[in-house]
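User: Could you check the structure of this?
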Amino acid sequence: MPELPEVEALKDFLAGHLVGRRIVRVLPVAVSVLKTYDPPVSALEGREVTAVRRFGKFLDIGTDGPHLVTHLARAGWLHWKDTLPDGPPRPGKGPLALRVALETGEGFDLTEAGTQKRLAVYVVEDPEQIPGVARLGPDPLAGDFDEERFAALLHGERRRLKGALRDQSLIAGVGNAYSDEILHAARMSPFKIASSLTPEETRRLYEALRGTLAETVERSHGLAAGRLKSEKKSGLRVHGRTGEPCPVCGDTIREVSFSDSSLQYCPTCQTGGKPLADRRMSRLLK
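Assistant: Sure, the predicted structure tokens are below.
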């Protein structure tokens, strides 16, 4: 799933390729991708792109009219095309969901792999009209997101750290992969209760949060859209690396599985050397 660093990199890439150019055609291929109908997608045609912004994991393409906002969900992606194929795309069972064409002949495709179609596209006058955007918590890379504000968010938070970090209404942009990376960098168990952190632990988690995201954004800066996925995977230390040695201590990276996702962690670095029981097999983690 694209998270804050990948969407931030896409934002920067698209800002350099879209701003000042005119949209001539927006072609929905999968009807399910459209989550709004007024204004229609045709309202974007003939409009000049004025800005590209990010709201958490949402990507906002602003024009001198409506905004085109997308959430790539778990399996969506954006593919830039220096030259779009001739003729309209054919609806079918392929991954193509929506195509945007510019007056220059360039453009991009939004695609979604798999059968769970969660990719979302909105055409709105204001991104705040989208419920998912309106409920977002603060951006962890914003200049005013300091340690004091972070501590206030965790105060009284009875959820485990893993769940708290992934809650978009608490902190915007962090998902399954980077929550694993942040907790590994902070040397904390994913099941530690957020409100139980000491001031020193809060500081450590704050620094890991900001540092992990900032480092990944910097590493992705300037990359073409097509290279961001491989860059993300190569930079991950624990997420998706079950059975591999921890790059810090050499212990074996372990996994806890859930109904629709999993987390990875290092026992030595994060849980005092004790492996966590798999949630599917232990009522202790319910």
